Amino acid sequence: MEQIIPKFYSYHKELLATIHKILNVKSFALYGGAAADLIIDPNASVNDYDIAIENMSSETIGGVKKQLVEAGYEITAERSYCIYNDIPVSLIYANNQDWSFDIGFLDDVSIVGQFNLESLYWRFPELDCVDKFEAIQGVLDKDLHLIRSIENENPFMLVSRYIRLAAKYNIPISKDIIRSLIIRIERWKAPNKFHGIEAQAALVSSIFKSIFMSVDRVLFIDSLAKTGLLNSVFPEIEHLATNISLLSIENKNRIMNASSKNELIKKIESFLDGHEKVAFLQRLQLLKLRQWES
C-alpha cells in the first residue's frame, strides 16, 4: 500500500510544476537524494535531480531531449542499463549553470530504489510524495537496509549504492550487509559486459565518491577496510586503508581537504609507491568506462 507523506507543501508542488514546464511530459517521478532531502529540509541546497519517466518510446525520449535543449540545458551523456538484473532503463544526463538532471525512462517508476532510503519519490501530476518503505524515518533513525531480494541484483551495483547512501547520511557501515554482498561478488558470474567489467567500474567510482562525500574520510576509509570490502574488490589500496589510522596528521588533512573526487584520487595515489602504485593506476583504468562522470 502506498504511504503518502502528509508534509508535502506548496514549495514541493511548485518544484514539481517547474520541472514539468522544463520536461513537458504528462507524468514523472522525482526520486533519489533530492526527493528525501527536500522533505526533511525544504531549504536544503539541491541542484541535482533524479527523474523517472514511465515511457521508453523513442518519441518520448526525443521529445524530452528537445525540451531540455530549448530550455537551455546541455545533454551531456546518454546510456542504457538494467536494474534488478533485467529491467531496462534508458538514461540521459543534462545540465545548465544551475541544475543537473539524471532522467531515466522505464516501464514502472514505482520500482526505483534497492534500499529504503532511496525508495521515496514525488509524483506529477498527483503532486504528492510516496514513502512506501519509510525512507524519511530511516534517514532520521540512520537505518539503511535492503528492501528487495539480493538474489535479483548485481552485487557490485548493490555495494555501490549501499556505501554511497551510508556516506551521504553518515550511517555506520554494516559488516553483515557488506560481507553478505562480498560472498555474492565472489560467486558472481556476469552474463554480459554491463554486469561484469562495467559494474566493477561503477563500484570503483562509488568507493571514491563515497569517501569524498563522507563526513570523516579517514574514518570512512578505515570502515571500508574493516568490512573486508577493499580486500575483496580493491586490494590495491587495502594495505593503505588498513593502516590509515597511522598516517600523520598532515597526510590525514590532505585527504580531508581534497576539493574533488579526482583530487582525492591523486592524494591517495601519492601515498603509494612501487608495485602498489602501478596496480592502483591499472585499476583506475576502469573509470574510463564511465566517461560521463569526468
From TrEMBL:
Highest taxon, organism lineage: Bacteria
The protein's name: Uncharacterized protein
Organism: candidate division WWE3 bacterium CG_4_10_14_0_2_um_filter_41_14
Origin organism lineage: Bacteria, Katanobacteria
